[in-house]
Amino acid sequence: MLEYIMQKKNTRDIHIKIANETMSYIYQNIDTSINIDELAISFNISKIHLHNVFKEQMDINIYEFIKSIRLQKASNLLLTNKYSTITEIANICGYSSQSSFIKAFKKRFEKTPKEWRNRGYEEYSKKIFENSKLINYLPNFDKSKVKIVKTESKVIYYIRQKGYKTEEAKEKWQQLQAWVYTNSLENYEQISIFHDNPAITPHKDCFYIAAINPSSNKRIKNTKLPYTILPKGLYATFEIYGDQSEIGWFIKWAYQEWLPNSGFETTTEPSYAIMHKNHFLEENGVDATYYLPIRNL
User: Fold this and answer.
1) Strand, coil or helix: what is 22?
2) pLDDT > 60? residue 4
3) Which residues, at least 6 apart from 290, have a Cβ–Cβ distance to it below 8 Å?
4) What value does the mean pLDDT take over residues 206-219?
5) Could you tell me which residues are beta bridge partners of residue 212?
6) Which pLDDT band holds residue 6 (cuts at 50, 70, 90)?
7) What's the whole-model pTM score?
8) Among residues 73, 71, 61, which one has the least CA distance to residue 22?
9) CA 153 to chain CA mean position, Å
10) Could you tell me if 105 and 212 lie in one domain?
11) N vs C: which end of the chain shows fewer Cβ within 10 Å?
């Protein structure tokens, strides 16, 4: 019986690893023609098995997930990258045909990319926040002190969560805290990674990552916690703080207000926050440095 339980647990851990690595691969290669056959071969499993494992762990079909991520990234770039053409944005998000992109976009958002860009997103965004449990509060910050920085890549160990749910996020961070103690880490960064813009993606569909970056930036052996690389890049940084424990409204402001008037565009990389105090583990508000991916026009 014990052997069966251990085997079942081992299978579960393998499936979680496959699903996480598949999702990371999709995010990192969203601008390419993603080949699921090659991905399955890299795991030494069949394509059908990969589909089944991903659906089991993420509760969504791989192809539907890829399509959803492409459209979510495109909906964001249409707002922030005002000098990029619709064709360029379609290409950045992995669409080789503008007509197929427009058709898929309208089916998903009930507006054409042109209508969406021409402030058509406002009604959609308003409904998202009306139905959100996020506190209607913009943390304190000084936009005159924004800094442009070039970061180096970071090795991160993480737990992924679907949906912006405070109680579940607390549980994830407690698990990471136990992992930190188990591995006797003394110097590390706590990082919240936001793959989706909560202003235009329903919060139940947003993916949030709680992550630890060891100061040594080296691989830790004998851990089942998934790891990946947070890529180096160009970022605008903001120091944000406040009594409330939500930054969703700040992300909305950063993408919809600051970026379009900044002289920069964004990329398909996620934004993230390095937390100086973790409001999920301590009784305090937001105290973090927020990193917004940018590129020159």
Assistant:
1) helix
2) no
3) 237, 238, 239, 240, 247, 250, 251, 254, 271, 272, 273
4) 85
5) 157, 190
6) low
7) 0.89
8) 61
9) 16
10) no
11) N
Q: 239 in a domain, yes or no?
A: yes
Q: Do residues 63 and 35 touch, judged by C-beta distance below 8 A?
A: no
Tally of domains within the chain: 3
Determine the Cα–Cα distance for residues 283 and 285; give it in Å rounded to an integer.
Answer: 7
Distance CA 219, CA 118 (A): 46
Sequence-ordered list of residues with C-beta below 8 angstroms from that of 234, at least 6 positions apart, any chain:
148, 149, 150, 151, 293, 294, 295
- Which amino acid is located at 226 in the chain? P
User: Please, are residues 158 and 209 in contact by the beta-carbon 8 Å criterion?
Assistant: yes
260-273 pLDDT, tens digit per residue, is 889 999 998 999 99
Note whether 156 and 236 are within 8 A (CB): no
CA–CA dist 107, 100 (Å, integer) = 11
What digits encode the pLDDT tens for the residues 107-123? 999 999 999 999 888 88
- Residue 138 covered by a domain: no
- For the domain that residue 87 is a member of, what is the CATH number? 1.10.10.60
Compute how many other C-beta atoms are within 10 angstroms of the C-beta atom of residue 213. Answer: 19
Structural domain boundaries, residue 164: 143-296
DSSP state of 39: H
Q: Classify the phi-psi angles of 291: left when phi > 0, otherwise alpha if psi is within -120 to 50, otherwise beta.
A: beta
Question: For residue 12, what pLDDT band results from cuts at 50, 70 and 90?
Answer: confident
pLDDT band per the 50, 70, 90 thresholds, residue 247: confident
The mean pLDDT of the chain is 87
Instruction: Note the helical H segments in 29-150.
Output: 36-42, 47-58, 62-80, 86-92, 98-109, 113-115, 121-130
